[in-house]
Amino acid sequence: MGGVFNGEDLFTFPYTFHGFPDDLDAFMNEVAIKENVYVYEKANTLSRIIGILDYSIVEVAEYVTINGEEFHHVKLDKETDGFVEMGNLRSPIDYRLGIARVNEEWEITFFSSWRLVKEEDFMKTLILYSSKYGTTETCAKMLMEQLDGQVEIFNIKENTKLDLTQYEKVIIGSSVYIGKIKKSVTKFLENNESKSS
Ligand SMILES: Cc1cc2nc3c(=O)[nH]c(=O)nc-3n(C[C@H](O)[C@H](O)[C@H](O)COP(=O)(O)O)c2cc1C
Prior knowledge:
The protein has 197 residues and is mainly β. The chain has 4 helices and 16 strands. The N and C termini lie far apart (45 Å).
C-alpha cells in the first residue's frame, strides 16, 4: 500500500490514514484495500455474495471468528449487512507512519503501532455449540451477530481443545435429546472443569 504527501514536507503511510474523510468515524469505518472485495451474506466464503467493494469505505460493526476464519461484520446500508474476509479491509488508524523533511533530511516523525481501542474491543466471547440437525448451530450464529466485541464461534465436535483463558465469556449451546445434552458437550465440560472459574 502506498502513502501520500501532506504538503511537500510530510509523507504518511499508508494512504488510508491521511486520505480518510474527516466526517467519518475512524473507529467505526474501514477501507477496502483493493478492488473486487466480496461481501458475503454470512461469515463463510461459500455463502452468497451480496456486495462488492472497490477501494470503498464501509462501517464495521465487529470482528468475528468462525472455526478459525476471521471476518469483519460490515454494514452496507441501514438494512443490509454482510461479512468481509479479514485482511481485505484496513482501519485508517491501524499501523501508520509519518516522515517529514527537516533541514533537507527526511525523519520519522510518528509511528503508531496500533489504534486506540475501545474497551469492548478487548472483550472476547467464545460461543461453543453442538448440534445434530442444525437448530442449535443456527441459534448460536444468531446470538453471535447480536453480541458486541470480538466473538469466536466453534462447533465443539470439531474443536475440543481450546485455550479458554483468552475469553472473558464462554457460552455453550447444546440440543437436548431424551433429557440429555449432547455427549460432546458433556465431555468438553468435564475436560475443562478446572478452567471454568
Ligand atoms: C428424538 C428426540 C428427542 C428429544 N428430546 C428432547 C428432550 O428431552 N428435551 C428437549 O427439550 N428437547 C428434546 N428434543 C428437541 C430437540 O432438542 C430440538 O429439536 C433441538 O432444537 C434440536 O437441535 P439440533 O438440531 O441442534 O440438534 C428432542 C428431539 C428429538 C428428535
